[in-house]
């Protein structure tokens, strides 16, 4: 046991706690944050990190799904079709990586980093797409009018299959990609049912992906143990303080972090357009700064296409359904930031 208590142990624990807090605050997928964080910490190769992250996610997502099930929020019929599509592909994903990359560890590591990099960029894009869909819904006056929509089996199966393949290979996608696909397929689904359904279908999906990755890559307990110890209390704390924190600002920050992480992983893997001989930290930092400056302007132009002023209501927080924060000392609504 003493061999496990090292500096690396506490680094993983801290990363797990931090990402757990963010997941509890925003509900955004932990795999999209945890996997690149562990890779950049250098605690193991990409396959080892993905396996440990999926196993930890299977533990804490189960708790969230049980809570939502007790509240009656999931649409179990919809979740069933998602699971039928996702589980087989989640089991298949790790095997496909080894077939494409061969048995050479370096080739597998490079391919996985490229796959995770592109998956992170996709996850960042889905958040922007979700905001645009919500904006169009607000402008068209479409509300949560259809809490129990007619299920579209084939389309839902395909969404599950795409999410299962992404999660099985990269551990990214169970929250971000599937969520936006559900929002597009079932625009009238109530927000609480959307989150509950996504959590319920994510449990068998992540379990299948974890089992398949463990069978092929093995499981590194020195990563898993501190990851679970850190992420579970972090998620609980984040959930507890979420009503008092401006989630929309954090989510926008996450989009920038995901984009920078995706590009950094592609760079680290030696993806040809970025060059194979050296990394480019200046380019990655420049992308982050550019996004920080340009994203509000781009969002303003998108608002104008919907007949709205560049800035003002509905704000990003309102589009995300974020409740107004209350100053408990004065019992008045605090201004949004």
Automatic annotation (TrEMBL):
<keyword id="KW-1003">Cell membrane</keyword>
<feature type="transmembrane region" description="Helical">
    <location>
        <begin position="116"/>
        <end position="133"/>
    </location>
</feature>
<keyword id="KW-1133">Transmembrane helix</keyword>
<keyword id="KW-0472">Membrane</keyword>
<dbReference type="InterPro" id="IPR002781">
    <property type="entry name" value="TM_pro_TauE-like"/>
</dbReference>
<feature type="transmembrane region" description="Helical">
    <location>
        <begin position="249"/>
        <end position="271"/>
    </location>
</feature>
<feature type="transmembrane region" description="Helical">
    <location>
        <begin position="81"/>
        <end position="101"/>
    </location>
</feature>
<feature type="transmembrane region" description="Helical">
    <location>
        <begin position="205"/>
        <end position="229"/>
    </location>
</feature>
<feature type="transmembrane region" description="Helical">
    <location>
        <begin position="39"/>
        <end position="60"/>
    </location>
</feature>
<feature type="transmembrane region" description="Helical">
    <location>
        <begin position="283"/>
        <end position="302"/>
    </location>
</feature>
<protein>
    <recommendedName>
        <fullName>Probable membrane transporter protein</fullName>
    </recommendedName>
</protein>
<dbReference type="Pfam" id="PF01925">
    <property type="entry name" value="TauE"/>
</dbReference>
<feature type="transmembrane region" description="Helical">
    <location>
        <begin position="12"/>
        <end position="33"/>
    </location>
</feature>
<keyword id="KW-0812">Transmembrane</keyword>
<feature type="transmembrane region" description="Helical">
    <location>
        <begin position="154"/>
        <end position="185"/>
    </location>
</feature>
<comment type="similarity">
    <text>Belongs to the 4-toluene sulfonate uptake permease (TSUP) (TC 2.A.102) family.</text>
</comment>
<dbReference type="InterPro" id="IPR051598">
    <property type="entry name" value="TSUP/Inactive_protease-like"/>
</dbReference>
